[in-house]
Amino acid sequence: MRVTLLPAAAIVALAPAGAFAVDYMSAEQAQKRMFPQADAFERLEPVLDADDMRRLNDAGLKPYPRRLPVHVAKQGGGTLGYFVVDEAVGKFERITYALGMNADGSVRQLEILSYRESHGHEIRLPAWRRQFEGKTAGSPLRVGDDIANISGATLSCAHVTDGVRRDVVWLDMLRRAGKLPS
Length: 182
What we know:
The chain is an alpha+beta fold. It has one domain (17-176). It is 29% helix and 24% strand. It contains five helices and six strands. The chain has helices spanning 8-14, 27-34, 50-58, 126-130, 154-176; strands at 22-23, 40-44, 70-75, 78-89, 94-102, 107-115. Strands 1-6-5-4-3-2 form a six-stranded antiparallel sheet. Strand 3 (70-75) and strand 4 (78-89) form a beta hairpin. The longest helix has 23 residues, at 154-176.
């Protein structure tokens, strides 16, 4: 019987994309990083009604297929902002991210929690994530407009940006409708 040994590079190239999964931080760690002054997080599960779904569709956004919990960051009873964990598909695998939004509707921070693709992990770099800070529902939030692309991470950049845009518009819509505490 003849045994052929493959070089390590060939084995890595043949490994499934899931073999590259990295968990960078938990949702709780991201909450503390984004809202260090918060003394409590209130979990809400806002329900989207038909008008909400229509508004999301009119904005060119795919409606949520499920309820997405929102954690309201509180300090002394007042609202600091909102925190959600969501996912986007990179090329083949899911990218889990956390988004923090200030009470005024602007993006506070973006964190990549888990990255499962073999390429494109550069979206976790602080310089790329900082581009989202201060963006609002009125911002383009599109790769090539106000968010830069990273060569080799094009799909990850585009899909996470699309997810953040959807989350920002959705949270702003809920906030303005009084479905989230201000």
